[in-house]
Amino acid sequence: MTPKLTRDEITTTVLRALGEIAPEADLAAIKPDVSFRDQLDIDSMDFLNFVIAVHEALHVEIPEADYPRMSSLNGCVEYLSALMEKA
Amino acid sequence: MHCFAEAGQPSLDRAHGLKLFHEMLRIRRFEEKTVELYSAGKIRGFLHLYIGEEAVAVGAIQALTPDDAIVATYREHGHSLVRGTPAGPLMAELYGKANGCSRGRGGSMHFFDAARRFYGGLAIVGGGLPVAVGLALADKLQGRARVTACFFGDGAVAEGEFHESLNLAALWKLPVLFLCENNLYAMGTALARHQAQTDITLKAKGDGVPGEAVDGMDVLAVEDAARRAVEIVRGEIRPYLIEFRTYRFRAHSMYDPELYRNKDEVEQWKKRDPIVTFEARLREDGLLADADRATIEAAVDAEIADAVAFAEAGPWEPVENLTRDVYTP
Amino acid sequence: MIKMKYREAVRAGLREALKSDPRVFLMGEDVGRYGGTYACSHGLLEEFGPERVRDTPLSESTFVGAGIGAALGGMRPIVEVMTVNFSLLALDQIVNNAATIRHMSGGQFSVPLIVRMATGAGRQVAAQHSHSLEGWYAHIPGIKVVPPATPADAKGMLLSALREPDPVFIFEHAMLYPMEGEIEDNAGPVDISTAAVRRPGTDVTLITFGGSLWKALEAADQLAASGIEAEVIDLRVLRPLDTPTILASVGKTHRAVVVDEAWRTGSFAAEISARIMEGAFYDLDAPVARVCSAEVPIPYPKHLEDAALPQAASIVKTVQEMLHG
Amino acid sequence: MAEFVMPSLGADMEAGTLVAWLKKPGEAVKKGDIIAEVETDKGIIEIESFMTGLLEKTLVEPMTKVPVGTALAIIREEGKPSAEPKSALPVSGAPPQPAVAPVSPTPPAPVTEPGRLRVSPSAKQLAAELGVDLILVKGTGPGGGISRADVEAAAAQARGERRGARIASAAGSAADRLLRMRQAIAAAMARSKREIPHYYVSTTIDMGKALSWLTEENLKRPMKDRLLYGVLLLKAVALALREVPELNALWKGNQVVRSDAIHVGVAISLRSGGLVAPALHDTDRQSLDDLMRNFRDLVTRARAGGLRSSELSDPTITVTSLGEQGVESVYAVIYPPQVAIVGFGKVVERPWVVDKQVVPRSVLTATLSADHRVSDGHRGGLFLAAVDRLLQEPERL
Q1: Which of B61, B164, D81, D333 has the largest CB neighbor count within 10 A?
Q2: Number of domains in chain D
Q3: pTM of the predicted structure, to 2 decimals
Q4: Do D92 and B95 touch (CB under 8 A)?
Q5: Contact (CB<8Å) B96/C123
Q6: D150 is catalytic
Q7: D96-105 per-position pLDDT tens digit
């Protein structure tokens, strides 16, 4: 059973993972509903590393098919909190 | 010039006599002033004084022409003065000033004067003899009737270079005048304690160089011997040696406690001070009166005072010139 | 520990040597009646007599050669050549006999000879009396070359040399004789094969020997004030050279400055620099620097002599240029 | 009136011990008289007066050691009033303090071969250990040389740590580094355009089979081992080069030098701007999983500034994929001394005729730029056809 995380905790985890692949990014200024690719200069390799970082931090399996649902901050939080509910 | 009344006892021309006296006194006062300046720390390093041996340089150098050459040792203040290098550049050299006779680079042991063919203060014992042989060789090869006078101490006869140089000069018949200033001590070792054969003229004979021993405390005897020797060397183009038996009244250099000799030996020799004995001789012959003595003394004092002033005023060589005069720094 | 002047330490060594072994005798210019130019044999003539404390004529080649002969003949001579400047006249005996006889004779003969000489400049005695040539001697296979920088080494190295089968050349820097230092009450022989780290450090290694050690230590103190920790190595022995100690230090600090009072070109400092390049190339963070004498006959005036010789200030300047570019 | 001072009695004398006075205050003194005895390291020495006059008073007791120059007594010179005691001799100007003459002449400024890095052996060693790319390091050592401190600073900065090295000055700012890289790229591109006669060929490749095979494969793998399609492209290019080896070569000393090994360089854009193209060694022999792991490692380290310079130096061909940025086709410039470069565009949905039916298919455009001195369009075309064919059987890559 994965301990329930509040939405804020999920958000910080996601931002920290984002910071690892885009060290120069100003995480505070991330617009929650705009896709990461449009705000930050990240490519498919960066996105893969980002998803893996989230997976390691939250111990959740994210199928490749669900990647599109992780393309923005709000998307991530919605998807992950739902995912963790189920787990 | 003075003429000979009969063999051996030259009657003395007044002017020449006063000149010899004046030259010896110049050296004596110059050296005395250097002692004072050394004690005051203005002159540093080593300082080897000529006090007591003045008659040798003064007498011998009279026999040389300006065209002849001199090679001397680290005890060469007197020789430089008599040869004609002004006292100012000599004193400045002792200070290490740039207006010294060697630009201040050499100090007491390394006076040089190209214009007067004075090839230095060479300070390694015996180091000057081979150089003198070479100068004479050059003269012979270029057909110049010149003499090279080489001054050295009794210590040098212990060096291989003494025998090697005399032999080569004799073998190749070179115009070298070897002048040994035997002051009985090689620094702290008496002649008899470092030479089995103490008669230096006999050593020279063994190497094929004729010679004679002369009382180095009698300036006239020195001059007479030197003139005869120069006749042989220049006339017959072959080497000759004179052993001047003389004595230094002060330590080998500044200073040593002189443990190697006793006081009364020094006192005995001081009784034969070349300046004191020659002054008495001049007065006996009516050639020197108190007035002359006073004028000479005043002239010497002035010369020495000017020399000190010249040295004091001299500039130090700028550090940027450190590697000047070095062919391949 | 007691305080003792360098020259007194040499005299203590000479006395102990003469007392400990009847085969030992001292020979050299003015070592007897005069008590030694630098007063190192003061009083020894009175104590041991003219047979064993022998004044020699100024015949360097011959009395060094005679020292070699006496050593071959079963004695243990200590020959004092007044200064390295006069030893040039004896170089033939040293290079062609002292250093060579064991090898040339197929190992039949050994030459247990000690030769001591003063070296170095700094007393305004001008070019012919101010040479630093210990590096020449360290070039010669067959002899040991030791420049003691402290009173303890000055005495100890002399005693250790007595037990060596072949010639040992001891170079005593003329400026060190009046220097006072600490020494054990009855200090005995010391090692004469390895270097010593006189001051540990991490940022640069100062490698030196003999008289220059004290300038290097002074420089190290000045550098410490500006946050640079210099390690100071006293080589103690030029031949054989303790290369491992040098390489270990350079491996740690990655920078080396060699201080040697000889002239730069062909100096012993050049040899040390070559060995560092050969043995610690990949540890080097900057070219090895050398602080040596300006290539000029040592001038008489103090300000020129000081400018010509290595000084603490020029060592500090060299290190700062090395670190800050 | 004059001071009688402790005289300097020898080259190495700094002080002396007054042993005894041989004249008492009030006694007359003549120039040259011995008035005292002093002990030095060499023994007892008699000291003379250089003045004639009256010994007024002594200032130092026997058996006291004083430095040279210390006043020992006052002598009133004959005929001179007892004025202020002055040193008997005029004082000449002190010699100039020697400016610290540069004892060791600085070595002549070394002429470094253009493009060759001036870096100390120890710094090169450290860079290898810390994985710092020397091209990105600004040298602060003498003559711009790179020192250990510069490497440490670069490594620290890459890790985002702000560890001020005690001695090292901070490495140049990021802007400097970017500028230097821009200059390096500019020089290479200009030379390429100047020297290499490029020709270009391109083709559109059906990616359908490859992408669906990839989805299947990724389901079987844990998250961090999932493959990106770029890896399939790299392997296809590598294998195709076995069929058209002249594209896998270098142009040196105006002749082509074939390379047995196939090291495909991958163009990676850096976060701060700029580009590097590190090599994947022996690309053709690596499994897809190896390729993915190495490719990921390369990208991560390149973006952390931690590439080993050896990885940069020996790609035999380069692949650039700007598909990420939504570009359909790429006409790239060859990296000298390589002789070819392959560009892959974005994967797009296009109407595609299969068995005379028009169906939607995922396709991308592959472009080859090649050096006409080494190969010609015909060979270039064969290469692209091979890549296309290989991508149709992804399971054999």
Answers
A1: B61
A2: 3
A3: 0.68
A4: yes
A5: no
A6: no
A7: 665 554 455 5
